[in-house]
Predict the 3D structure of the following.
Amino acid sequence: MKMAAPISIHLEFGGGAELLFDGVKTHHVTLPSQSEPWDVKQLLEWIKANLLKERPELFIQGTTVRPGILVLINDADWELMGELDYKLQDQDNIVFISTLHGG
Amino acid sequence: MKCKESPALLIIRVGDAFCRNCFKEYFVHKFRAMLGKNRLVFPGEKVLLAVSGGPSSSSLLFQVQEGLSHKASKKLRFVPGIVHIEEGAACGKTLEERTKIVADLKSIFSTSGFPFVIVYLEEVFSLPSSVLQSIFSLPTEKDDLYKDAVAGFMQSCHTSVKKNLCHETVAQETTLTEDHTHASLLSTHAHANETSISAFRGKFPFSPEQTEAVKKLFASMKTLTAKEEMLQTLRKHLILYTARIKGYSKVMMGDSCTRLAVKLLANICLGRGAFLAMDTGFSDPRHGDITIIRPMREYSAKEIAFYNKLFGVPSVFTAGLNTKAPEKASIQHLTESFIVKLQADFPSTVSTIYRTSEKLNPRYSQTPADDKGTETCLLCSCVLGIELRDEASAFCAISISEELSQSKKPEGGQVSSSTMEECCAENKMETLESSGCSCQSRERRNTTPDFWSLLCYSCKLVVKDMTSLDLLPEYILEEANRRQRRTQIKREIQEYLLTSEDDADTAP
């Protein structure tokens, strides 16, 4: 069975979401190779298991992000890219911005 | 989608897709249209921007910067300044954390080129009681004034030789109305211990005792709801004070559409239903000489977050009172969670609430025409007695049942009255400098029920949540005393006052 190569993803957290990741805003991660291409849904699970330091319910609700958290894939709204079903590619830039703290 | 050339980057509401350039155009245009449509900001007027560092207010600052720059077509024409209220003391931050945040903000503010001032929450203990008074002038025809002002401004700009003289000429020509002279008189009646806001004693313009006092004030409130409301009130007073002493006539707040929709529903839950139009509308005239305007009120939180990310608007995240709090920690937090969740499945939620709020108009006049007439709330400056106008209202029912339950326990009463008696002795020693302090403290013991009549229903609930009224900053207690004495004197001379019915008889 052919395995896809591991892919590098740049993650960014803003708007207060970084509080849940020890205050670190940018993360460069390498997702291990697997047979099926990675999609955003799996990425969220991976983040929950490997990066999230506290209060998972403030970031993830069920299988998707908590309402109020915007997701940008390569500077575009994830709603235009297929949301959870978007298939990740090497060097993609995913940004999570929390809009729950106004200003 | 509009241009059909570049790829779509984001979706707003249902089905409105924008590419990068169309989005920028749309965003900037909305800001200009908001200001232009309402015609409240006069050319050359001094406008204070209240920037908390969060995304909405940072976006507001950015829009004003862009709008005033020379490159802008039909550039904006007012004179901005920036104020930031540093609230770290209430949120339990350390001095190091607060210094870092303030440093980050200062670098953003200096880049803008506008004059800025950082006000710390602790300075609430140095405010004069005049900040709670509203100053009103006679109503004038707004439309004519606006057109004349624009015409006058354009003329003065053409006649001045150098371009950079423009702002100065207009600032000088703006005639000081009665409002402004009154405001400057008020500021001289400052509290005896007041230090000027920009003076620095050591590193910070406040003492560790004041930080402790802030912490005690917030610790005395049991619910997060009351804490958030109190913080908002104190923040507003500090902004108003800054605006008055620096000569600003307008304050721009960065409340987004989402934030205002949350505020609308939360305020109904808090008992502020009568003041929804003022609390969430474009302009808030209740303070008289200073008008608060909300130019960001048509932008959803998503639009603002996207714009900031795509166009590099700097903002500083500051944790607030309800950061990482559980969902039901406070009414405001729960309402926000409710609306945001609903919005995820029904993207027109926020705009529907917004449209509804636009249609709200006060049934009774919201602002007293002169400050001798209708009574206003001590803390939020809203008209008092709205709930008493209908005899069959829910409020009357609540107050009747409250009265009945209290008369059964004559000793129980209110927590505040017993603590008032203890504090009188302390106050005699502390406030030797303020006028008539010893008679004031004796009066405080006797006038506790009158104190509650100075507050509107929701402010009453906030203050009742405190364990002791003395933790309130001095300016609030002073103003409360002043108003109670006025009411008392008015009662005493009531029979000698001519009423409007008497005037009608003697009119020719």
